[in-house]
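Researcher: Good morning. I'm working through a list of sequences from a screen, and I'd like to move beyond sequence-only analysis. For each chain I'm collecting a predicted structure so we can compare shapes side by side. This is the next one on the list. No need for commentary yet; just the structure.
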Amino acid sequence: MRHRWPKSGAADVGIIALSLALFPDMAKHGHYLIDNNLHNPLTQGYVVTRRGGDKQGVMDFARFMETDKAHEIMESYGFVIPKS
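Model: Good morning. Structure tokens for this chain:
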């Protein structure tokens, strides 16, 4: 299924995450990057909830997120992986 980005015309400009701007459907549209010197780093993360901790798929995902392959994928979408 292809995702359709809303184009309501309600705004002339918007700020989106770099990961969204690099997503193939969005990358074909013009966008500008905000210089890193103009803002503090935007830190993001993930958590495993108590309810999710009992689910194999959740734990598989959490373990995958620690792998070099997952870091490579995240970096391809503009995320910076912290060095341990």
